Amino acid sequence: MAEHRPVSPDRVPTLTDVLRVVGVTSDSAVANAPAAQTPDVSVLTAELLGSIQVHIDTVFQARLREAIAPALARAVDGLLRELGPELAFALRDIAQRAVVQELARRSRDP
Fold it and tell me: What is the pTM assigned to this prediction?
């Protein structure tokens, strides 16, 4: 078993010193301790995304609305400019037909 050296301000403690302080006293326990595994990046990424998915969705929707709003406004303005004259023509046509029908009805009824 390794000798226990006191930790002093002028000496950096070894891993064995630290393990003794937290309760691992046997050198065989230190030797048999499981090696630290490198976390799988894809698993960590999936876990992180899952935990913040609601926040991501909210932020994404807000940013999408901000980005789309000007394009939609331009599209609506263009449609109104394009369809305005056609709508005016259709309304005039409807009004003329209504006037013709009303005149025809009045000429039949004395």
Answer: 0.35
